[in-house]
Amino acid sequence: MIDVLVEDRSSIRTITLNRPAKKNALTPGMYQIMSQALNEAAGDFAIRAVVITGAGTAFTGGNDISDFLETPPTGPESPVFNFLYALHDFPKPLIAAVHGNAVGIGTTALLHCDIVVAAPDSKFQMPFVNLGLVPEAGSSLLFPKLVGHAKASEIFLTGRSFGAEEALTMGLVNKIAPDHLAEAMSIAEVIAQQPPTAVINTKALLKSGYHQAVSMVMEAEGELFRIALESDEAQIAFMNFLSKKSKG
């Protein structure tokens, strides 16, 4: 089975996380495929928008912890960071169709999307502190910018999950729809009909006030994340997580 499906329908590219038996837990290979799909779409004039979604019962359970322990991201050229920068620098409309669990990068990646459609059963979580880590993907800047310092602190420091309605109130998602993928595709089709250069320039203007700042924060987060991964705190937290998972 191919873990990431990339399909072009007319002028819309769909990237589907396709590891449903593992709740679409992400591996280095999956990150690499997604990076390549985004970078190719950025340079292909025929592609006007990209939709990211997940197969099965979840958007993504975040990083595959076992895989993460075996092949941790050791530098800025690692597949994880390649994907994060491909997201951050993607010049065209990026739309997410989310359902079920969206854990870790499954939530932080949404901060780089232009539109997010969530199914009613969506459940978001950024349990970095729980795992002895720090936020990534520029989320330590983008999330408080979106929801305010107090709410961001509460969610980051407790690692608690929150549902679709709370995410809608926060502004993390644009719309809740029972058929989240159909709604996301419908929005993508509307955008794809707009003058493409105007769309790209408008997105660039919307991000111009903080794009460089996010790049700098991502670099700092990446360094702290790599240091944290090697800490005893993180190793113990990962082992506890895997132990609970095997018993559950």
Describe the protein.
Helix content is about 50%, strand content about 15%. It is built from eleven helices and nine strands. The strands form two sheets. A six-stranded mixed beta sheet has the order 1-2-3-4-6-9, sandwiched between helices. A three-stranded mixed beta sheet has the order 5-7-8. The chain starts with a strand and ends with a helix.
Radius of gyration: 17 Å
Number of domains: 1
Q: What is the H-and-E element order?
A: EEHEHHEEHEEHHEHEHHHH
CATH class: Alpha Beta
- Let me know the largest β-sheet: 6 strands, mixed
Strand order of the largest sheet: 1-2-3-4-6-9
Brief descriptors of the model:
248 residues, alpha/beta, 2-enoyl-CoA Hydratase, Chain A, domain 1, 6-stranded mixed beta sheet, 3-stranded mixed beta sheet, 11 helices, globular
Give a nutshell description of this structure.
The chain is of the alpha/beta class and 248 residues long.
Present the secondary structure layout.
Layout: E1 4-9, E2 12-17, H1 28-43, E3 49-54, H2 65-70, H3 79-89, E4 94-98, E5 101-103, H4 105-108, E6 115-118, E7 123-125, H5 139-147, H6 149-158, E8 162-163, H7 164-170, E9 175-176, H8 180-192, H9 196-207, H10 211-229, H11 232-247
Parallel strand pairs: 2-3, 3-4, 4-6, 5-7, 6-9
Antiparallel strand pairs: 1-2, 7-8
Helix pairs in contact: 1-3, 5-6, 5-10
